[in-house]
Design a protein that fits this description.
The radius of gyration is 25 Å and the shape is extended. About 75% of the residues lie in helices and about 0% in strands. It has 4 domains: about 5-95, Helix Hairpins; about 105-130, no CATH class; about 145-210, Orthogonal Bundle (Helix Hairpins); about 215-265. The protein has 13 helices and no strands. The protein starts with a helix and ends with a helix. The longest helix has 25 residues, at about 215-240. The chain is mainly α.
Length: about 270
């Protein structure tokens, strides 16, 4: 069996060498927290993509890329004298123990956890300790917009600011569609963006009410569109054509044929 601590030590040592001012990699030497952050986000998405595709052969490699991002940030923190990898590991270990008294605490704590929303209470206490006040405090700005919309609305719902049911959300969506339609004649980009943003925010709330993840829903729609459009291109190619030299009517006909074939497939 692979020795996890030894491999982690090896990875940390590799990171030190990459950042060495004299003998390291010029590209790695030039990076900082801000330049590495986009790669961290990208690697997290690649992990999610491998899981979505159920590609278990690729998943360890993608998780390794994500782990390397943590190691990278840890090295930057250590160079700045701010924190180390051990600090990161200790912080998350302490947090998990603190948030799970029903697992790590005594019998009384375990029993109490069964009758209270302890996880959210612990998180709220942690936000107060960081001087983050208000129901929406601590929702990261850097989240994908749909995810952040869902999290903001969930926080507001916890304090009672929410639509009563799905039908009320759908009614609000109808209202926002009407408001966007009313802005179309003027074609003011700022007003259109504002109204379209309102629509998207309501859609994120609709997903929450349906117990669905809006990002997952949109990824599924993206994949479906890409799959169907590729089939349209294939169908047109069989006729010696491309989308560029086909009419919209031709493409629509091919699109509907693809949809029909999908629905009737066994």
């Amino acid at each position: 069996m692979t020795d996890a601590p030894a491999e982690l030590t090896r990875l940390l040592t590799i990171m030190v060498r990459l950042r060495d001012p004299q003998t390291g990699c010029p590209w790695d030497q030039a990076q900082d927290f801000a330049t590495i952050a986009p790669y961290t986000i990208e690697e997290a998405y690649e992990v999610a993509d491998a899981i979505e595709r159920q590609d278990m052969a690729a998943l360890p490699d993608e998780l390794g890329d994500l782990l390397f991002q943590v190691v990278y940030h840890a090295r930057l923190g250590e160079e700045a004298g701010r924190f180390t990898f051990a600090d990161i590991a200790r912080a998350i270990a302490d947090k998990m123990v603190r948030r799970h008294p029903h697992v790590f605490g005594d019998a009384a704590a375990r029993q109490a956890a069964l009758h209270s929303d302890l996880w959210e209470a612990q998180k709220a206490a942690e936000r107060r300790a960081r001087d983050e006040h208000g129901a929406l405090a601590g929702v990261p700005v850097g989240l994908p917009a749909l995810t952040r919309a869902e999290k903001l609305s969930k926080r507001a719902a916890r304090v009672g600011f929410d639509w009563p049911d799905t039908e009320a959300v759908l009614a609000k969506l109808d209202e926002e569609v009407a408001e966007l339609r009313a802005e179309l004649p003027a074609s003011d980009p700022a007003r259109l963006a504002d109204e379209l943003g309102d629509m998207l925010f309501v859609l994120a709330n609709l997903a929450r009410k349906l117990n669905l993840d809006p990002e997952t829903c949109l990824r599924g729609a993206n994949d479906k569109f890409a799959r169907r459009f590729a089939a349209v291109e294939h169908a047109l190619a069989a006729q010696g054509r491309t989308p560029a030299d086909s009419s919209l009517a031709d493409m629509e006909a091919a699109w509907h044929a693809v949809k029909t074939a999908e629905r009737t497939a066994p």
